[in-house]
Fold these 3 entries.
Entry 1:
Amino acid sequence: MTTKHFRLALTVSLALTVSSVLASACGSDGSATSTSRVVLSKAEIQRLWDEAAAFADRSITPWPDVEDFIADLAEDATATDPTGNIFNIGREDIIVATRQFAESTNYNYEVTGIYLSVDGAAFDEALPGLEMSTSPDAPVLLAADAYRFRDGKIISDDEWWGSEWLRFHAVGCFAVDGCPALQKTVDRYVAAWSARDPDAIAALYSDDAVFTDSMLGLNAKGLGAIRDLANVRFGSTGDLTIEVLGLYAWTDGPHPPTEADPERGSLIGVTVHHRTTSSSGAVMQEGIITLELGPRSATDMDADPRGLIHKEDVFHEPASLLAAIQP
């Protein structure tokens, strides 16, 4: 897979306004609080949305214009795609890898969704033309990219592959019964958070897991703090439904497991495009969540043997945020 790099300066002044329909903030130590519910102002959200959309038009769709993609990489930037065995560290390594990929491929990017965090952005993408098979039934590769920025420079790029494409091409664990671990992970996650069940939620995460939803000011580290979000993240009352709209995954390399190496190609990450609605059918939140199912270093990532979440990041679909803020 390629690495794509956007020069989007997401400098945010946190103009917080009270909202009665979004999740409560957390304390600075990550514990849940009963303070007023907060969200970025409509003006801030609209500005970030406009910048992300303009940047996508300027820097994603022109591919393979490599020079445009690499123009604003930070010197210490990282690019991560464990499925493709990509762990690039530093601007120069990423430039070399990106140019090599551009020279050997021929395809386009289409942006189908934009999602925001305070210091980054995530994009749903379709990559028509990039296929590993000539079969007429081969699905178009769908991808999700999550980016972080510092002082207008890209400091990280995480790329995820669409689950149906992985199944079709039998990548990693998807070569074995379609990788049932993916659906098991998603089902447990949706059931626990839909029920606001603190014990079931805590059972999803490792002891030192980190949860971040910067657009709503939710930051929690460790099981206790994440458990305390059970009645905070989606509010404390009323039925809610979490609908899965799309799935993306990371596997531990592209090759399937073998008898000699049964852990090869294990599921090590899941990204979920989701929509959460209340019992009345009103949209409470829509966005992308990235779930890392194991510890990650700059050069490697291992599967958690229990399939636990070590890191979760939330990116919000901006229209749903704007609709949720009281006038």
Note: The longest strand covers residues 240-251.
Entry 2:
Amino acid sequence: MKRDKIIYLVITGLFSLMIAGGAVMYFVKYPMVAKTITKLGYPTYIIYPLAIVKILGLIAIWTNLSRTLKEWAYAGFFFELCLAVSAHVAIQDGEFAGAAVALALVTTSYFFNRRLEAAEKEAAA
């Protein structure tokens, strides 16, 4: 279980750095992000709400306030990253790698989170 906990923390930490870095960039480099978002075919008015939701999602994952909220945060990140990968592939700009890496990280984080929850449940029984 200790190995799983370390893997979970490292993977979730790397994922969090990627997502938080992107969210900060949405605020700091808005013109550049707006250009990319427009190129992907999305409206620019989603930039600030998306950045805020990403930060809230990370808070939901790290704080464990609610198991349901954490599940929804993982689901939201999964779908958002699937859409990001597919949007980059669709316009063939070759910039899907970052989203693909984040997608792999969030999937791995979720897997180890579920494994740790199952181990805790088993230990409590």
Note: DSSP finds five helices and no strands in the chain.
Entry 3:
Amino acid sequence: MTVPAVLAAHSPPLTALHAAFIFLAGLYAGTINTVVGSGSLVTFPTLIALGYAPVLANVSNNIGLVPGACAGVYGYRRELAGQRQRLLGLLPASVGGGIVGAVLLFVLPSSVFKRAVVVLIVIALALVIAQPRLSRRFAFSGASARHSKLLVVFVFLVGVYGGYFGAAQGIILIALLSIFVADSLQRLNAAKNVLALAVNGVASVVFVIATDIDWKVAGLIAAGSALGGTLGALGGRRLNPTALRVVIVAVGIVAIVRLV
């Protein structure tokens, strides 16, 4: 039996109530992904609870969140000003990682990344909390070649994780950027949104080519996440650095609780 046939067999009937749940989950995910990340910790479990097979839920969710990521990037366009060179240096790593992660979805068991993500989130939260002190010590406006290469490697690895599963990808990305790059947290959040969009975007292309998608589910999540991404940008851009850091840590703790 082919992969598409297996996935299609695990797509339950879509009732009006289920559609409402999926849309609302997408709305939340689009909002929280733009501000922090970890929206998949709501959308993915929602689809599983409604009876969708794990791989089908994962790929449909990934595709549905892309419009929300686009809306978030657009909403943070002012904070992206002057970051062209920075993003051009990091985007290839995100794209490459996203492709590798998407391919690994069909090779590795989900338990591999589920075990790792809790540790990654804990480390990321510790970095976010310590960011003001660490950035003064390690981040440079003209970062050394060694630090730049190390950041590229880390961004690639986060891209692999993001293409495979992606929950809390944004939290890990913003933690890395805040340590290696000397800039405001809001501008780094804007850069995070672009990198996360790149990962989800290329992973979605792989999924469309390689396997079956529940387009009704993806469409509902897309509608919700697009609206959520717009709302998230409106609210997230108004948060001062301390408030944004508190939100990141709070969401990260909730993510850990949901995963363990």
Note: The radius of gyration is 17 Å.
